[in-house]
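INFO  loader      accepted 1 record
INFO  loader      residues=152
INFO  predictor   begin
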Amino acid sequence: MATSSNSSSPSKSTTIFSLLAALLLSSSLSFTPEAYHLGGGRRWGKKVGGWTDIPDASSNQELRQLGCFSVDEYNLEIRGAGQPLITFSGVLSGQRQVVSGFKYRLRIAAVDSGTGQPIVFEAVVVVRPWIHSRSRSRDLVSFTPIDELPFH
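INFO  predictor   done
INFO  writer      dumping tokens
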């Protein structure tokens, strides 16, 4: 009885398919780093999901509103008993990150109403524009004093 040698070895079409699949996989992996940057190999885009600087943050009305919101939330919700209120002075810089909505990281200048001293805070605010209630569309995630002079 003769046994067929084809039953133990892969068919020609299976071998060709495997080689093509390996070739496609290896060529797609060589371009993987480029997929994370808009603009491909030119490197002029930003990393998807990364923080993006907002130009002219100090004059941006949306950022000023978020800065005021952050200070108001601090005064109402975070400020400890006996601590003086702070007053919003301006936005020094801002960055935006696309998440489920937008996450803003702001450097905010404020004034301590007790001492009159300027203070800088870093605020992180999440904005969900599809929620139409102003009180629910924004959340202050963090509000932290930082060691930086607010006025250069």
